[in-house]
Design brief:
Length: about 325
């Protein structure tokens, strides 16, 4: 089995900003696994928040792929820690297995039907109050909008978005930027502003302030949740988990996490990094079981991969067999 890894940079429309900073491009790694004339592909997004970089993740992928062998490949991959490198390998193995078996991944994964078209929530990134208001107006008609905040003038920002799109359900994502004091002051006000979910308000290293906190909206774990080992720590603090393949380390673990969340009566959000459709196609296999789908990464780009079938204007995601997962 031969592995080919390449870095790609995809421009983001208008840029993208969260509490940790801004960027103008989605920088991804694509892995191709070549075996007997067939090619399986996977894409991952290295994330500095977790100590990852393009160079470090590329090195990890190349080191592991040197020893991947046939039917033992998935077992070898699962010995890796969760993260972007394992995600690329896992998804490339699923894609290659589909081609070798002559059956689509959704069948190999034991699902009852192929991924159906699904609406993704749309995103308003951190900016000034007026710019966020204007960005929200452009998304008028979207039923669910994620609003990125950073611990600054957040109540004014949320209020402005709510005024601009009063019928939209708002999911507020602080990316760990709030203090416990801000949480206590702002949490009771959120329902009045159309908010139904608050995502990762506190640092993952110091989210104990959530213990015993009364809440009028659901609180979702993102940076506090990675893979199956996270459940023991977050289950009593959070109402929902954000499952992202770049955190779980691939589709295999994400499928397990979705099942375990249901068993534990935790609600599920399905999330992504800013990426192309090659990274989103595997995640779409979980979309039908998620209460919230936040897979608009490709919709934020200037352009997407050839063959992508998504409808940017409607926020509608459609699986494309020409990109990933088909026999």
């Amino acid at each position: 089995m031969k592995a080919v890894v390449r870095a790609e940079s995809w421009p983001i429309r208008g840029g993208f900003r969260i509490a940790r900073g801004a960027r103008a491009t989605a920088d991804v790694l694509v892995l191709e696994l070549h075996d007997g004339g067939l090619i399986g592909r996977g894409e991952c997004v290295p994330y500095p928040r977790y100590g990852e970089s393009i160079d470090s993740v590329r090195a990890e992928i190349e080191a592991v792929c040197r020893d991947l062998q046939g039917h033992d490949a998935h077992a070898q991959m699962l010995t890796m820690p969760p993260g972007a490198s394992r995600n690329a390998i896992d998804c490339a193995l699923w894609d290659l297995e589909a081609k070798c078996a002559g059956a689509p991944v959704w069948q190999l994964a034991g699902l009852s039907e192929p991924p159906q078209a699904v609406h993704s929530m749309r995103t308003v990134s951190v900016n000034s109050v007026e710019k966020m208001r204007s960005a929200a107006v452009e998304l008028a008609g979207a039923p669910v909008i994620k609003v990125k905040v950073d611990g600054g003038e957040d109540m004014e920002r949320i209020a402005a978005v709510h005024e601009a799109v009063p019928d939209a359900e708002l999911v507020i994502d602080a990316n760990e930027a709030w203090s416990p004091e801000q949480l206590r002051a702002w949490l009771p006000v959120l329902p009045e502003l159309g908010v139904t979910v608050l995502e990762q308000p506190l640092s993952a290293d110091d989210d104990s302030a959530l213990d015993g906190t009364e809440r009028a909206v659901a609180v979702c774990a993102d940076e506090s949740f990675h893979d199956r080992h996270s459940f023991a720590r977050i289950g009593h603090r959070y109402d929902m988990v954000n499952i992202k393949l770049d955190k779980t380390g691939g589709l295999t673990e994400a499928l397990y996490c979705a099942d375990e969340a249901r068993r534990l009566d935790l609600r599920v959000m399905l999330g992504c990094m800013v990426s192309t459709s090659l990274a989103i196609e595997p995640a779409l296999l979980l979309a039908s079981d998620a209460e919230y789908v936040d897979l608009d990464g490709p919709l934020l780009l200037e352009r997407d991969r050839q063959g992508a079938l998504h409808d940017r204007d409607r926020g509608l995601l459609r699986s494309s067999s020409s990109i990933w997962g088909a026999a």
